[in-house]
C-alpha cells in the first residue's frame, strides 16, 4: 500500500518547491512577490537582493592588479598563475617583482644574473682544474 502523506504537497510554479497544498496560495502570493529566480544559477533570491546576488555571485570581477575583467571563478587562478602583474620572486636574487617584468629582469635587466651564471661556470671550471691538478700530481 502506498504511503500517502497526510500533508499533500503541490509544486509552487514560481519557485518549483514542494509546498504543503494548504499553504500554497499564501506561499505563492508571498513567493511571487518577494522571490525571483536567478537566471544564472536558478537559485531563488529575494527580489530586493537580486542585484546584490548577481554582483556578488555572478558579475565579472576585475583583477585588482592588472584590472582585467574576468569570470569570478577564474580570478583565483588568474591571480595565482596568469596575472601579468602578480608578484613573483626572482629565483636568482629573491627580489619580488611583477611577473611581467621577470623575463626582462632575469635576461636583459641588470646583467646581474649573467654575472652569477658566469661565476658559476668559473667556479666549476676551477674545480675541474683542481681535480685535474690533483690527478696529475
Ligand atoms: Zn514558491
Ligand atoms: Zn545566481
Ligand atoms: Zn590580473
Ligand atoms: Zn633577480
From TrEMBL:
The keyword Coiled coil does not apply. Keywords: Metal-binding, Zinc, Zinc-finger. The keyword Zinc-finger applies. Gene3D superfamilies: Zinc/RING finger domain, C3HC4 (zinc finger). InterPro entries: Innate_Immune_Apopt_Reg, Znf_RING/FYVE/PHD, Znf_TRAF. PROSITE patterns: ZF_TRAF (PS50145). It comes from the Eukaryota. A zinc finger (TRAF-type) spans 60-93. Residues 60-93 form the TRAF-type domain. Transmembrane segments: none annotated. This is TRAF-type domain-containing protein. It comes from Solanum tuberosum (Potato). The lineage of its organism: Eukaryota, Viridiplantae, Streptophyta, Embryophyta, Tracheophyta.
Amino acid at each position: 500500500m502506498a504511503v500517502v502523506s497526510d500533508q499533500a504537497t503541490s509544486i509552487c510554479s514560481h519557485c518549483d518547491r514542494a509546498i504543503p497544498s494548504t499553504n500554497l496560495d499564501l506561499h505563492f502570493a508571498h513567493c511571487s512577490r518577494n522571490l525571483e529566480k536567478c537566471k544564472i544559477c536558478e537559485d531563488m533570491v529575494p527580489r530586493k537582493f537580486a542585484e546584490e546576488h548577481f554582483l556578488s555571485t555572478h558579475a565579472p570581477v576585475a583583477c585588482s592588479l592588472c584590472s582585467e575583467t574576468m569570470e569570478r571563478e577564474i580570478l583565483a587562478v588568474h591571480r595565482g598563475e596568469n596575472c601579468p602583474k602578480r608578484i613573483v620572486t626572482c629565483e636568482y636574487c629573491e627580489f619580488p617583482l611583477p611577473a611581467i617584468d621577470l623575463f626582462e629582469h632575469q635576461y636583459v635587466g641588470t646583467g646581474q644574473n649573467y654575472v652569477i651564471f658566469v661565476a658559476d661556470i668559473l667556479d666549476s671550471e676551477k674545480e675541474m682544474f683542481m681535480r685535474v691538478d690533483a690527478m696529475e700530481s
